[in-house]
């Protein structure tokens, strides 16, 4: 259980503090030095803390959606992946019991779902069928229920049904051809087949737990059977929704009290080419009719090539808005500005003379095969706002209502471009922003200054966007832990008026950007905690911040580090997750100026601090980072505080090992510990543990 320690003078206090954290006691001063005295100007409050201050960045990288947050267990359920229709599927024993198995388009279910598999067996056999491997296996829990559904059509012959089996992967052999069966966890038979397409649904209850199970489908009898839209979905989803999200992962997000949820990225917004870009209109409506798309990350890194990585869009824009609502976060959708990823093709959509949107094309329009101009992208943005906020009488608002959400989602932000840079971005951004503002003046626009936090392109973009009165400028930085500690004052000299800052993507890299050897170490996390004191101290300039990336599957990642790791059954928060959570669950309402003795800078002697007032609870919240191997006794002078209470709360995140990490087996290796402490006066003393991030909640009003 969480523990902490009382604030007392002397060595005894230090020993109690450290032992409660499982750390070796260290000799500390009997009194704080002048250098370790921090004055919080409670009587000189600064800017309000934006409700969006600390949030989440979601991108479908590292199997974050399919195989992760979106809990569909069947990979490639509709055989629609171009040129690779059997990804995820294997014939049992190399199809020894099948005469043929092929993908066909002969009288499909629909125009968008126009491929299916046709199985034919000359003679009845328990091996006449296919196995789906799932997303690095299928996670099944004992006694949990799973809804299996499939579209079937009987052809010539005497096939009387489809045998459905959930089984654990066999331990011997390399795949279904070598090991056709494992421990059976659930089994049933679907019968009543007809000569027309018909959907069949059954519920399977697992007799055991398996992290790497699989689905086996075999013909009952000889002949031909057509099969499509094969799905296996857990009944235990967030809010028990039919197309809901994975519960443990959503809980980790909700526990953070996020101010916003950015979606769908990230470079995935752009695509390697414009044809492969993320198109929100292709991700709504009937789940079975959503056409899959190659994931931009599937072949990006040779060291982590994942050619089977595709997006099913089961988690689409409707589910995204719904998830934002579920966890209490403002949705911040990011849309393509007419540019493919500049790290890939750099393809550009032409800017036409009109420079504005075309007429509303209505919800039936599909851009997938277009040669789009900038107007296409602008119209998509306008239609998305209508989808989120429009009345039922509007074309796209009606689409939202038809999907089961009559009330508007109350969208307030929209991002124009993800991480673009250079004049190509600015010349597209300007007419794009102008068109959005003309129709929806109340929407706040997030703009980009590229992937680097400095340099000529960064400076030019920042200057121009401020001239255009951009509301929010999105800055990204992936750098060493040292960079984060050294740049704690990054925003101290930014303008207090005009454009605000969104620290949209950041994470300390222990080895190097995009290195597969990066770790979610305590050194990285505590350095981010130090940097975030600088964000909080500049809450009049910074209104949004999010760590990136958010999720990673332990068997299917492309990028490290990542905030939350998971396998098919379990998940854990990294030390970085707990840093983010400690900020986002203690955001306060008003910034309070913080001063060091003798005008010392924030971070001097590796002591970092920030403070806010929480007017909702009547508390002063002080955040302290001690990046030192020694305990440190600090004095906190609450200047002008009123109505002090006697009992405060300390939350401490610490480890004596800067290389410490969490894992599936040790998820709490580095985790916060809580306890109350005594407050005797407006001069509060507290012993900070070595290498620690501490949040003090002190009852007192301003």
TrEMBL record:
InterPro entries: Alpha-L-AF_C (IPR010720), ASD1_cat (IPR055235), GH (IPR017853), Glyco_hydro_b (IPR013780), Glycosyl_Hydrolase_51 (IPR051563). It catalyses: Hydrolysis of terminal non-reducing alpha-L-arabinofuranoside residues in alpha-L-arabinosides. Residues 1-28 form the signal peptide. Residues 504-692 form the Alpha-L-arabinofuranosidase C-terminal domain. It comes from the Bacteria. SUPFAM superfamilies: (Trans)glycosidases, Glycosyl hydrolase domain. Keywords: Glycoprotein, Hydrolase, Signal. Residues 352-371 are annotated as: Disordered. Its EC number is 3.2.1.55. Belongs to the glycosyl hydrolase 51 family. This is non-reducing end alpha-L-arabinofuranosidase. It comes from Hymenobacter cellulosivorans.
């Amino acid at each position: 259980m969480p523990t902490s320690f009382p604030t007392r003078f002397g060595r005894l206090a230090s020993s109690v503090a450290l032992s409660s954290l499982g750390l070796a006691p260290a000799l500390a001063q009997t009194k704080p030095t002048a250098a370790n005295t921090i004055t919080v100007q409670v009587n000189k409050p600064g800017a309000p803390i934006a409700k969006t201050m600390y949030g989440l960045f979601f991108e479908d990288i590292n199997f974050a959606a399919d195989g992760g947050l979106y809990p569909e267990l069947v990979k490639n359920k509709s055989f629609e992946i171009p040129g690779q229709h059997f990804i995820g599927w294997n014939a049992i024993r190399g199809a020894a019991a099948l005469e043929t198995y092929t993908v066909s388009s002969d009288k499909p279910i629909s125009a968008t779902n126009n491929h299916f598999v046709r199985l034919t067996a000359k003679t009845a056999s328990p091996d006449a069928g296919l196995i789906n491997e799932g997303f690095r296996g299928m996670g099944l829990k004992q006694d949990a229920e799973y809804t299996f559904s499939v579209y079937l059509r009987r052809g010539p012959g005497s096939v009387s049904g489809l045998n459905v089996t959930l089984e654990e992967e066999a331990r011997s052999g390399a795949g279904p051809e070598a090991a056709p069966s494992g421990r059976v966890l659930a089994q049933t038979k679907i019968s009543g087949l007809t000569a027309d397409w018909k959907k069949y649904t059954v519920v399977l209850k697992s007799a055991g737990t398996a992290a790497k199970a699989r689905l086996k489908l075999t013909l009952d009898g000889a002949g031909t059977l057509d099969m499509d839209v094969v799905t296996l979905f857990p009944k235990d989803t967030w809010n028990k929704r039919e197309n809901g999200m994975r519960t443990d992962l959503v809980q980790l997000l909700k526990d953070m009290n996020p101010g916003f949820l950015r979606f769908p990225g990230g470079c995935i917004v752009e695509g390697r080419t414009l044809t492969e870009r993320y198109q929100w209109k292709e991700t709504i409506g009937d789940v079975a009719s959503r056409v899959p798309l190659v994931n931009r990350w599937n072949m990006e890194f040779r060291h982590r090539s994942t050619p089977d990585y595709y997006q099913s869009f089961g988690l689409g824009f409707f589910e995204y808005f719904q998830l934002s609502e579920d966890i209490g976060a403002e949705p911040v959708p990011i849309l393509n500005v007419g540019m493919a990823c500049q790290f890939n093709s750099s393809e550009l959509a032409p800017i036409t003379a009109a420079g504005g949107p075309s007429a509303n094309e209505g919800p039936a329009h599909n851009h997938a095969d277009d040669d789009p101009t900038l107007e296409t992208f602008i119209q998509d943005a306008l239609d998305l706002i209508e989808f989120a906020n429009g009345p039922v009488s509007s074309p796209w608002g009606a689409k939202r209502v038809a999907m089961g959400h009559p009330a508007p989602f109350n969208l307030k932000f929209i991002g124009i471009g993800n991480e673009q840079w250079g004049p190509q971005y600015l010349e597209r951004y300007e007419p794009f922003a102008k068109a959005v503002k003309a129709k929806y003046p109340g929407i706040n626009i997030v703009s980009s200054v590229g992937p680097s936090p400095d340099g000529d392109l960064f400076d030019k973009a920042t200057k121009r966007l401020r001239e255009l009165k951009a509301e929010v400028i999105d800055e990204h930085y992936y750098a060493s832990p040292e960079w984060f500690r050294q740049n704690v004052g990054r925003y101290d000299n930014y303008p207090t008026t005009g454009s605000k800052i969104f620290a949209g993507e950041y994470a300390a890299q222990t080895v190097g950007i995009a290195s597969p050897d990066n770790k979610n170490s305590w050194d990285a996390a505590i350095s981010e905690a130090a940097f975030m004191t600088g964000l909080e101290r500049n809450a009049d300039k910074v209104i949004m911040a999010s760590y990136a990336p958010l999720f990673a599957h332990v068997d299917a990642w492309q990028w490290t580090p990542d905030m939350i790791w998971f396998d098919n059954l379990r998940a854990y928060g990294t030390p970085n997750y707990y840093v983010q959570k400690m900020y986002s669950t203690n955001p306060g309402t008003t910034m309070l100026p913080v001063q060091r003795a003798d005008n010392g800078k924030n971070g001097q002697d590796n002591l970092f601090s920030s403070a806010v007032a929480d007017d909702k609870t009547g508390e002063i919240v002080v955040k302290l980072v001690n990046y030192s191997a020694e305990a440190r006794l600090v004095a906190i002078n609450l200047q002008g505080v009123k109505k002090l209470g006697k009992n405060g709360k300390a939350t401490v995140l610490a480890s004596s090992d800067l290389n410490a990490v969490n894992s599936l087996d040790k998820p709490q290796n580095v985790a916060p510990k809580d306890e109350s402490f005594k407050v005797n006066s407006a001069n509060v003393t507290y012993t900070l543990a070595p290498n620690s991030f501490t949040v003090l909640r002190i009852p007192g009003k301003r």
